[in-house]
Amino acid sequence: MTSSGTNSAAEVGAGASSESGAEAGADSEAGPGAAPGSGPRRPAAESLSPAWELLLPAAAAPARGRGRALRSALREAVRSGRLAGGTRLPSSRELAADLGVSRGLVTEAYEQLTAESYLRSGRGAGTWVSEGVRAAERPVRDRAPGAAGARVDFRPGTPDLSLFPRSAWAAAQRTVFGRLPHGALGYPDPSGLPELREALAGLLARRRGVVADPERLVVCSGVAQATTLLGFVLRDEGVMSVGVEDPGSPEHSSLFAATGLGTVPLPLDDEGLALAPLERSGVRAVVTTPAHQFPTGIGYSAQRRGELLGWARDADAVIMEDDYDGDFRYDRAPVGALQGLDPERVVYTGSVSKSLAPGLRLGWLIAPAALTDRIVARKRTMDLGNPVLGQAVLADFIVGGGYDRQLRRCQRAYRERRDAMVAALDEHFPGTAVSGIAAGLHVIARLPARYGPENVFLERAAGAGIALRPLRDCGTAGSEDGTLPLVLGYAHLAPGDIARGVAALAEAWRTGRAGSG
Questions:
Q1: Of 199, 229, 292, 326, which residue is least crowded by CB atoms under 10 Å?
Q2: What is the DSSP letter of 329?
Q3: Element (H, E) at 72
């Protein structure tokens, strides 16, 4: 039989039908006339049309799962289009004989797929493939972020996932599974498990200087969800747009757009968000990254922090503080969070995405008292709360000291990798200026103008399999002095890989230059 619906003699019998009454024990029966306990009779290859050959692996499956395997194989044949709509199937007796399995096994498969609308049948009219089944057009795609085919990926934002503390996390899981009561597996408090909110409040007060009331702390799926929660609440209050740093994280604008809010790019100066443009903008909410501005790497000055809070009070505005990597400062102790200076004007957000792994989807939001109830209500309607087990494990990990140990481990590794990046740039791209404080998981590297023009440099890098993010991807401002500003991530690369990657980038530039000359 072919997928066009043409039937061979082996496929259509004089009495083709979908017999009912599956034989007892169909899943474990062998072919007709087989001795008890024997396997299926293997049909001769020449007795089958090509379309039925795809069922042979199912027919040869272990007896206990043979019926399930046959049903799955038939279902997939219809989905994939191998059995086209309108194709008439052989009778259960004929197909059973061809495959060397029991007739009851085939009958049961026909009945199940008819109930699911993959097949249709009528008394005395045979069994057919339903025309309404849409064949799958493509395999499942993986939409996780990544640079397909990149030999070296210098784009920022990803920690070293090999540093994830698997053994310690597994130990925390065992502890949690041993003590978690059955009732805890019900729908959770949308704010988060009380034990996790208490643990996070203590951690953030101690490490980041946050005023952390557990009753105002909401556990969420990373800073991305924290941003959308705030966006929905602000929109409900009549806010139409939010100020964002320029340059800044591109994700902020797209996340607010998903809540119906526009964004207003606001320029920076050497101390942080420039105050005069902010005041002229008329916005009543603004997003900032004051501990380590993304992507420029500057830390907001003490004076600018005070001025920013003064603006918020005068304008009756809200500041969202994205503390995305505030724990990672390499030249001194981290500066405390802005929220600690005025918890009624600042919405503080953070996550474990840089310290543990983004795949855990665990973050937090600490809200001003006036916004807390509305944010919790929105969280409830959004997803009814984060998964219980992950929250419970993180709480145990924090209380047991594992999280502090992980931060120290990451800080040592990332400081070494930042040093390796700076050294490699000095060696292979002399004259490059690395700006920003010694912190975080990326650097801004301004290559001298002689390596330009920028678009040609980026094309040569891409041709060599090196993924880069230029600074212009993060905002409206371009380079005014002809330099090539790049946002280079290093945390996910070993020091040796960083050195080899920068060397490969320099070689790609030299090769392209020689070729163009």
A1: 199
A2: B
A3: helix 66-80
* pLDDT tens digits in sequence order for the chain, 517 residues long: 333 333 333 333 333 333 333 333 444 444 433 433 444 444 444 444 545 677 888 888 888 889 999 999 999 888 888 888 888 888 889 888 888 899 999 999 999 999 999 999 877 778 999 988 876 666 777 777 776 678 999 999 999 999 999 999 999 999 999 999 999 999 999 999 999 999 999 999 999 999 999 999 999 999 999 999 999 999 999 999 999 999 999 999 999 999 999 999 999 999 999 999 999 999 999 999 999 999 999 999 999 999 999 999 999 999 999 999 999 999 988 899 999 999 999 999 999 999 999 999 999 999 999 999 999 999 999 999 999 999 999 999 999 999 999 999 999 999 999 999 999 999 999 999 999 999 999 999 999 999 989 999 999 999 999 999 999 999 876 667 789 999 999 999 999 999 999 999 999 999 877 666 5
Q: How would DSSP label each residue in 220-254? A: ESHHHHHHHHHHHHHHHTT--EEEEEES--HHHHH
Contacts of 88 (CB under 8 A, 6+ apart): 5, 7, 11, 12, 16, 126, 127, 128
3-class DSSP assignment, residue 346? strand
Tokens 């395999």, located at residue? 139
Identify whether the C-beta of residue 188 lies closer than 8 Å to the C-beta of residue 503.
no
Please say whether the beta carbons of 213 and 340 come within 8 A: no
Rounded CA separation 322/348 (Å): 7
Is 40:60 a contact under the CB 8 Å cutoff?
yes
